[in-house]
Amino acid sequence: MKKLLLIATCALWVSSLEAQQKTIAERLGYPKNTKLLILHADDVGVSHSVNLATTTAMEKGCINSASIMVPCPWFTEIASYVREHPGMDFGLHITLTSEWSNYKWGPVTPSTKAPTLINKEGFLYSSVDSVKQFAASTQVEEEIRNQVRRAIQFGIDPTHLDAHMFAVVRKPDFIKAYIKVGREYKIPVFLAREMERELNVKLESLISKNEVIADSIVTILPDMMASNPAAYYAQTLRSLPVGLTYFIIHTAYDNEEMKSVTKGFTDWGSAWRQTEFDFFSSGECARLLKENNIQIITWREIRDKLYR
Question: Closest Cα to residue 58, out of 189, 164, 178, 159?
Answer without folding.
Answer: 159
